[in-house]
Amino acid sequence: MKITFVLPPVNNRGGIRSTGMLALHLMKQGHEVLAVCPSRSSPDIRRQITSFVKGQGLINTETRHPSIFDEIEVPLKVTQTSRPITDSDIPDADIVVATWWETAEWVNNLSSAKGAKVYFIRHHEVHDYLPVERVKATYKLPLHKVTISRWLVELMKTEYGDRNVSLVPNSINCDKYYSSPRNKQLTPTVGMMYSKQHWKGCDLSIEAFNLAKKEIDTLIMVAFGSEEPLSSLPLPTGTKYFKNPPQEKIKDIYAQCDVWLFGSRVEGFGRPILEAMACRTPVIGTPAGAAPDLIIQGGGRLVQHENARDMAKAIIEITQLSNEQWREISDIAYNTATSYTWDDAAKLCEQAFDWAIERTKNGELVF
């Protein structure tokens, strides 16, 4: 197949990275793949001042940020402007894939020559910082939907009336995220990913850590993220924080922890769960995204939503296990993560694209 992925301006965030890896493995299956995105618009002076006043520093003015497409062989076409992608920007193909709510609007307006239209949904993007009604409208467009977790499949059915959604779970690159079998840390260590977004649940993870530290005074935290911690959401005193660590160093951050915290209130999948597990770190997580499917296998503990005490209890339990007991959970975590491969994901995606072509030929994907 000739396949075109239509992306927003690229960066190094998880959704773009996952799309890049999926595209790469589709190429390895023998398909002809192209990724296309617009240039990033330059922030005006008002946005720069607002960002600076909020303590977030000046916004990067580069028209293209670093991304996984700098590391892999999937061709990426970046258009000269920040306008939406149109017919003139992409070749005729068998499949054209929207990868974000805005790109779903663009793909919906393309001609049929650009391919059967697919909407790859990685999250239910109804966040208050987005135009929620426009986002919701994209989930009703006549595009074949592919998504990454069972809860999103069910949501598309119950809320948007679509019973023909394909499931293609995320995976990770185990050449990049890995660790040899190891023991517990000499000092009990908890890790987390830092984000200011409320739905990521960092406040819950931090509260749980602080509660656990009252019981284990030697407990320490390691964290990484893409931004400076906010004064309104401070990390615990003494946290070792890595801002924008090099991609090749992230595995070392995961691997220096006895347990990783996943406190999300809502999540498309929760790829850090697999990343941490691949580095042999058990995960304590809320039942968001794919966490119930991943953690239930025994590589960590599933805790209640909005319950910092439940998470703190799990932190205390896992960090106080004997080394032998901890190694058992660590091994299960590793085996869980390595059972999800990009080759498997590419094969499932190939099946989803075949279905999209068939549905298009049958006239199903029309208003």
Give an overview of the whole structure.
The chain is of the alpha/beta class and 367 residues long. Helices cover 35% and strands 15% of the residues. It contains twelve helices and 13 strands. The protein has helices at 14-28, 45-53, 101-108, 132-138, 150-160, 202-215, 250-254, 271-278, 291-295, 308-319, 323-338, 342-361, and strands at 2-6, 32-37, 76-78, 95-98, 116-121, 144-147, 166-167, 189-194, 220-225, 240-243, 259-262, 283-285, 300-302. The strands form two sheets. A seven-stranded parallel beta sheet has the order 3-2-1-4-5-6-7. Helix 6 crosses helix 10. The two termini are 26 Å apart. The model has no long low-confidence stretch (mean pLDDT 93).
List keywords for this structure.
alpha/beta, globular, single chain, seven-stranded parallel beta sheet, 367 residues
Number of helix segments? 12
Helix content: 25-40%
Structural class: alpha/beta
Cα-atom Rg, whole angstroms?
21 Å
The 3D shape can be described as globular
What spatial order of strands do you see in the largest sheet?
3-2-1-4-5-6-7
Beta-strand percent range: 15-25%
Order of helices and strands: EHEHEEHEHEHEEHEEHEHEHEHHH
Low-confidence spans: pLDDT under 50, at least 5 residues? none
- Average of per-residue pLDDT values: 93
- Give the termini distance in whole angstroms: 26 Å
Main β sheet profile: 7 strands, parallel
Number of strands: 13
